[in-house]
Known about the structure:
The complex is a heterodimer.
Chain A: H1 2-20, H2 26-49, E1 55-59, E2 68-72, H3 74-97, H4 105-123, H5 127-145, H6 152-183, H7 188-194, H8 199-215, H9 225-231, H10 234-257, H11 265-288, H12 292-319, H13 323-358, H14 369-372, H15 374-388, H16 394-409, H17 415-447, H18 454-458, H19 465-468, H20 471-482, H21 484-491, H22 495-498, E3 507-508, E4 513-515, E5 520-522, H23 524-545, H24 570-580, H25 582-585, E6 587-595, E7 603-612, H26 615-635, H27 643-661
Antiparallel strand pairs in A: 1-2, 3-4, 4-5, 6-7
Helix pairs in contact in A: 1-2, 1-4, 2-3, 2-4, 3-4, 3-10, 3-13, 4-5, 4-10, 5-6, 6-7, 6-8, 6-9, 8-10, 9-10, 9-12, 10-12, 10-13, 11-12, 11-17, 12-13, 12-16, 12-17, 13-15, 13-16, 13-20, 15-17, 15-20, 16-17, 16-20
Chain B: H1 3-25, H2 29-54, H3 57-84, H4 97-115, H5 118-121, H6 130-146, H7 150-172, H8 177-205
Helix pairs in contact in B: 1-2, 1-6, 1-7, 2-3, 2-7, 3-8, 4-6, 6-7, 7-8
Amino acid sequence: MPVLLVGLGLGLAAPLVGALAPARGRTLLAGGLSAAAGVLAAVAALGVLLGGPVLRARASGLLPLAGASVRLDALSAAFEVAVALVVVTAALFSMGYTHGASASRPATALQASFALGLLLVPVAGDVVSFLWAWELMAVASLALLLVEHDRPAARSAALWYGAMTQAGAAAIMLGLLTLAASAHGVSWSALAAARVSGPLAVVAFVATLAGFASKAGAVPLHVWLPRAHPEAATPVSAMMSGAMTALGLYGVARVDLGLLGAIGRWWWAGALVVAALSALYGALHAATATDLKRLLAYSTIGAMGLGLIGLAAAGELRASGQGRAAATLVVGVLVLVGAHAAYKAILFLAAGLIERASGTRDLDLLGGLVRGMPRVAGLVAVAVASAVGVPLAAGFVGEWLEIEGLVAGLSSHDPGGVATILVGLVGLALASGLVAVAMVKLLGIGLLGRARSEGAARAREPHGIAVAALGLPAAATLAMGLVPGPVVAVLGHALGTVLGARAGAPQGRWDALHVGVTASTLRPLALLGGLVTAVVVLRGLARVGSRGVRAVVAWACGRSDLTARMQYTATSFAEPLQRVFADVLRPDIDTTVSPEEEAREIERVIAYQSRVGDAVEGGLYRPVVRGADALGRRARALANGSVHRYLAYGLVALLVVLVVVG
Amino acid sequence: MSGLAGALVDLAAVAVLVIGVAGLWRRDLRALVGLLRVQGLALALVAATTAASEHDLGLGVTAALVVVVKAGVVPTLLVRVARRDPGAREAAPLINVPSSLVLAAALVGLAVVVGAPLHALAPGRAAALAPLGLATVLVGYLLLVTRRRALSQVVGLLVIDNGVALTTFLLTAGVPLIVELGGTLDVLLVVVVLRALLGTMRAHLGDVSLDQLRELHD
Lengths: 662, 218
């Protein structure tokens, strides 16, 4: 317990230091304190995960109504470790990366407050503390978007984010207060003991799910995410994408799965369909995006969609009596959250380094970065492997467990349930395929090949802690991918909180991971051993049999005069997909032909531009915004500038109040 | 409270209201300011009588303050504004005089009905008159809403303030002196500012009719 409290204390000190310290050393001090806070919180959480007792603390005078309380159980710990990984990485990164305007007092203090909010949300022990921590996280990140308020894109992103996050927070508050009022208590344990069910539980389910899913970027509540994440400063966008969205999943696991009593299973089936659509939508946009950070933001929507599929399917399966499959799914989602936190932190931070080194984050202008930025490219390759789901990286373990859980769920005898799970399975498969396209595009177009612009050709990687910090999540990714057994074994402790039972949890040893419900086993170390053996044997054979063989460049069709413009670009790579899904994506394509001066038949320049806007934003939100705007304009008739009219409003209001009260 | 004091308070309180209603009737601006002066005196009479019968020194000081500010300084300031264009009249109120008198009667009725519970707050002879204060507030508001001239609107504002003061005198035998002092100085400040504003408006726009002012500009 002292470790956690000291950690949170350091986290609280970080914003104060950021606000008070002089410019020299401000980012170092605040970043160091935030990183230390994250490390201590992770240590405390690992202690709980390894079988330690649940940590609890209360300070009755700290917050109004119910006081502040801290509770670190296995579910909190699983998310706390993932969040702390991102917070520590981002804090160390910004010690070497942040300078100039984003190192100002407010920016530093707000970034440290955001980190503190992220660390507090999973350990909040009751509704009131949770809402405070949630708001701290939301408001600090909103203010961080406004640090660069002189850019219109940042202002517009902040407006969208502010509206969506506050609406989401209101929905969550409504849901949690409904629960607390029916349970006559505010602590998680009181709510869990009450097992609220019936119509009020449905209200709480819908409200909290909408709020949490909005934070996790579920369609159609995602519109803030692809705007806000790319506009924030790099360490902030890493924390938003890697940690904050994951806390949306934490909310679903904690409240909707863990605290609510029985609600109809079809509510969960509906959530599953939304989650599948969301995963597909995010992945599809990621595959067609050409802006590096926008691609990453959409892939976050895709990855969180996969997590939501797992949680919703777990709810559905538990309600239909297949608790063992649900257990596999929940553990899979927890692994996925950890894996996503690690690889998304690497990718966003690397995107910041690439943008700074090359001056652009447009994939169509990048390429060949592997030569100038070899270490960054290597780290990005590890992250991409995890995101794509290559075995031996963390992402694969999570997706494998989730697929195993869904397949186990198919053994139900009820056609409706099977159909629902099939939707999840298909959504998962298609979305991971599309995310793979996006990630291959990122790596292949952005980092390999030849440079497509001067800036990309000149890009060199920085030295120092900014790159070294990325080694931490990369190491975590590889460790989770190579030895998933112990990780899965300790994450199984969280099942008691989420599902109420641990039956069916995947078994993990140091060298193997076994899923009971489908009787399948994963042995990454054996796979690695086989792979190494195969490579060694093939190389040996090649050496033995290659005496008379001449080595030539096999690429480039035998030509030597290839230029960078002959390569695939990000746009052309995604063009077939964009064509297939044109009805969903509604791209805005613009082809301009400028002919030669003297000969009209000869075309000199053909400019092709394609922009993919957000169809949900255009179709769903724009009409609402327009309607509100029109209402506002019409309401102006009430205020025509006449003093007498304003005074008359006052008199009428006074009379109405008098009559009503009297 | 002796019979005489009670009768005096009754008379003065009713006078405050009647003068407020008379403000709706008179259209000559100088006469309007004259009414305001008399209303201030009537208000001071309420305070002074209550102070004398309750032997309350603070309330006595308040009464003196009311005489100085509401019957002295403020009307004098307003008269100076009115004197700049002698014979200025409220041209045509938004609601004509007979209708606004009828409306005022309705408002007084409403105030008496909804103000009845006020009596329960402070049982006593004076508290029973509290609805008169409420009625004065409503009449002042009506004056504010229906008059076009800036000066008449200032008068309306002051009638509202007098109504509030009357209510407090009747209900609680006056708020603490310091609060009354603050409130009175506030009113004085408002009048001084409005007077300066009216002077500027006249310089820029000529005759001041608020009807023609439709937009705010920097």
